[in-house]
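REVIEWER CHECKLIST
Item 1: Sequence provided? yes
Item 2: Single chain? yes
Item 3: Sequence as submitted:
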Amino acid sequence: MAKSPNKIKTKKPAKTEDQLTWKDLEIGSIASKPGSASQYRTGDWSSRQPAYDHSKCIKCGLCQIFCPEGCVNTKDEGFYVADVYYCKGCGICAKECPGKVITLVEVKE
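Item 4: Structure as written out by the authors:
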């Protein structure tokens, strides 16, 4: 019996960001290549998010340094704000903030 010619493997069409679900994550939720998790809006899983009182902020950047998700960015006038698309609401930024600028509030749907 003759072998069939090599079949070309085709990839599934890529999903758009609004079509992705938890089922599309790698097993164990590992990041298999740099930046591969940026398409997943992990902040959608959170029940809390940070709220800021920038009048107390000394712009030390500790919230950005200690954020395990790397989602705290510098905004206007040097203030720091978490990107709620990726913030999981862990509260580490609020715990480490020396000025008590950050509090966690319940996410309203």
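Item 5: Key structural point noted by reviewer: The beta strands are 48-52, 72-74, 80-82, 102-106.
Item 6: Recommendation: ____
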